Amino acid sequence: MSLQAAEDIELERQQLHEQWKLRLERAGYETALVRRRYEAVDPDNRLVARTLERDWECALSAEQALRDEQQRALAEEPEHLTDADREAIRQLAQNIPALWSAASTTPRDRQTIARMLLERVEVLVLGETEHAELTCHWSGGVVTKHAFIRPVRRFEQLEHFDKLLARITQLRTHGATAQSIADILNTEGWAPPKKDSFNAPMIHRLLQRCGLGTTRPIWSGNVPRQHDGEVTLQEYADRVGAHRQTVYGWLRRGQIKGRLVKVGSQRIWLVNADDTSTGICTGESS
């Protein structure tokens, strides 16, 4: 195919040269015609002679401009293939994988190779799952099929989502933490959507869906506390039966006291759940 392309380029080169030859012949004919007219005029007829002389100069300039344009066009033409070049192309054409993987082959070259070898590509997605099948129709009539995994947006789109949830539930009921569940799933070959591997936050969200999550935020268990009476704003809100934003308002107005701690890049407020000196009416029975 590469040699055929080279032959096509050579044919186009010959056609282009023929076109330039005709254009130059036409320009030379026009110049010679004007020159003959100038030479045939009566020298005493100065007005006509000056007009024909200008016409001759214009024809000479146009012919020279056309020749300059031809030289620029010829300089931009691809070089002729040598016998060694043709032999190298033959060898590469017989080993497309080597040509594709060669360090000298650029992404643009690979696109060109694909366009030359492929006639049609079809993609079949199996429902809304991550599984898909690629069908390649190659030049010459060969058809190949390739299964691949496509990225999906939601866990529910995974083909074995029910089995995944069952496995997570099984591990959780045996006391495994979110991080250990993530590590086990990665070791067993499970893959989440949009990511390469599972992590603890993903597992926490899935546990919440299964009803196996805790009422604490996913990070609250890792908060360094000075004593058991320190709780997060959410935990305090759950105790007093108020909304978290209401509790945060009490904190800002000084009705309850708290301190900021940092877990990773996240700042978290801790308040003393045993502090009853604030006078806040929580609705709890005395």
Give descriptors for this structure:
286 residues, alpha+beta, 4 domains, three-stranded antiparallel β-sheet, 10 helices, Putative DNA-binding protein, DNA-binding, DNA binding
Furnish the topology, listing elements before pairings.
Layout: H1 2-40, H2 46-75, H3 83-93, H4 96-101, H5 107-117, E1 118-125, E2 131-138, E3 143-149, H6 161-173, H7 178-188, H8 200-210, E4 230-232, H9 233-240, H10 244-252, E5 258-263, E6 266-272
Instruction: Please indicate the percent range of residues in DSSP E strands (runs of 2 or more).
Output: 5-15%
- Roughly what percent helix? 40-55%
Q: Radius of gyration, Cα only, in angstroms?
A: 41 Å
- Counting copies of identical and different chains, the oligomeric state is single chain
Keywords: DNA-binding, Plasmid
GO molecular function, one term: DNA binding
Organism: Sphingobium indicum (strain DSM 16413 / CCM 7287 / MTCC 6362 / UT26 / NBRC 101211 / UT26S) (Sphingobium japonicum)
Protein name: Putative DNA-binding protein
